[in-house]
Amino acid sequence: MHTSTLRQVTVREGPFASVYFDNSHDTEDAAARLDLRWRSIRKQLADEGAEERTLSALDAAVTAAPPSEGRTGRALVAEGGEIVLDEELVEPPLREVVRVAPQPYLLPLLRLSPAVVPHVVVVVDKTGADLFAVGEDGAEERTVEGEDHPVHKVRGGGSAYWNIQHRVEAVAERNAAEVAREAVKLADAVGAEVLVLAGEVQARALVRDELPPRGTEKVVELEQGGRADGSAPEALEAEVRRVLAEHAERRRQDVIDRFRAEQGRDGGLAVDGLARTTAALRSAAVETLLIDGESLADRLVWVAGDPTQVATTKEDLELSGTGAEALTRCRADEALPAAVLAEGADLVPVSGEGLAEGVGAILRFAV
C-alpha cells in the first residue's frame, strides 16, 4: 500500500467509517453470503452513527465491485459521503472490523496489504527489453528497441565468418548497454530496492555485466518470462511477487533487529511504551514506528487538531499550548498510524515482539 495515499486520507476531516471483511468468492453461494454480510455491516455502521451519505457511498462501492477470486478480504474507508480507500486484501481479516471514529483505522490495511517495495523488472532479449518500474508514486513502463540486425550468431564457415561473428557480439553488447542505462534511470527515478532481470539467458548476462557496481546487490535473475509472442506473464508475475515479499520480510526483520540493537545500548535511539512513543511523535523524532495491534488492544490516547500531537494524558498536550477544547479521545491503534503518516515517518506492523504496551519507535534523534 502506498503511504502517500494513506497520508492523504489522514488529513481529511472525519469522522471515518472503516470496514474490513471477508470478500471471498470460493463457494457457490458466495454472492448471497456477501449480501447478508454487508447488510449486517451496514446496520452496525448505522448504529455507530455513520452518515446516510457515507452509507450510500459504501453501498455503491460494494455493489459495483466485480467478484474477487478465491480467498480474499476487502478494506473500505469512507468519509463525508466519499470512498477514500478501497483495497482488496491478500487474505480475509482474522476478524471482521466495523468502526465509525474520528480517525481512519488503517492498521489492518498495513498488515494485510503487500508492502510496497520500489522495484524495476527488466524482461530482456538480444534486441531490447520491456521495463516496468513501481515506486511510491505509481508505476511506469518503457520499451527499449535496440539494433535488430544481425543479432544471431552464424553457423558454418566462410571468409566472412569472423567479421559477422564480431558484428553479432557488438550489436548484442550495444543493446545490453542501452537496456542497462534505461534500467538504471528507472531504478534511480523510483528509488528501486530490487532490480529483477528476466528473459533470455545470454541477454540477461550481458545486461548484468553492463550494470554499474552500485546496483549489483539489488539484482535478482529469474528464469521465467520472455518477450516473444506467447510468453505467459503469469509465472513471471508470481515469481516477482515472491521476490518482493521475501525482500519486504527481510526489510521488516532488519527494522526489528535495529530496534533491539538500539534498545540494548546506552543512549540508544529507541523507545517503547505509549508515553515515551507519543512524546517522540510530538517532537517529530520518530523515524520508524513499530506497532503490535493485538498487544496495543483498546488503549486510548488524546489527540489535538494536528494528528502528530498525540499523548497519553491531556496535560501533556495542554503543556504544549493546545487548548483542552481542541482535544479528542481516540483509540491508539487509529491515532498512532495517523500520526506517523502525517509526520512522514515509516510504520512497521509487528506481532509477538514483546513491545511495552504494543508500541515502540526507532528515533531520528534523542528526546
Q: Can you describe what's shown?
A:
This is Vms1/Ankzf1 family peptidyl-tRNA hydrolase. The protein is of the alpha+beta class and 367 residues long. It has eleven helices and 16 strands. It has three domains: 110 residues, Translation, Eukaryotic Peptide Chain Release Factor Subunit 1, Chain A (2-Layer Sandwich), CATH 3.30.960; 131 residues, Nucleotidyltransferase, domain 5 (2-Layer Sandwich); 95 residues, 60s Ribosomal Protein L30, Chain: A, CATH 3.30.1330. 40% of the residues lie in helices and 24% in strands. It has a five-stranded mixed beta sheet with strand order 7-6-5-8-9, sandwiched between helices. Strands 3-2-1-4 form a four-stranded antiparallel beta sheet. A four-stranded mixed beta sheet has the order 10-16-11-15, sandwiched between helices. Helix 5 packs across helix 6. The longest helix has 31 residues. The two termini are 30 Å apart.
- The name of the CATH superfamily of the largest domain reads eRF1 domain 2
The number of helical elements comes to 11
Task: Tell me the strand percentage band.
Answer: 15-25%
Q: Over all CA atoms, what is the radius of gyration?
A: 26 Å
**Strand neighbour order, sheet with most strands:** 7-6-5-8-9
Shape: globular
Binned, the helix content reads: 40-55%
Indicate the CATH architecture of the largest domain: 2-Layer Sandwich
- Biggest sheet character: 5 strands, mixed
Give the low-confidence spans. Answer: 149-154
The average pLDDT is 86
Order of helices and strands: HEHHEEEHEEEHEHEHEHEHEEHEHEE
Tally of structural domains: 3
Instruction: Tell me the distance between the termini.
Output: 30 Å
Secondary-structure class: alpha+beta
Strand segment count: 16
CATH fold title of the largest domain: Nucleotidyltransferase, domain 5
Just give the CATH class of the largest domain.
Alpha Beta
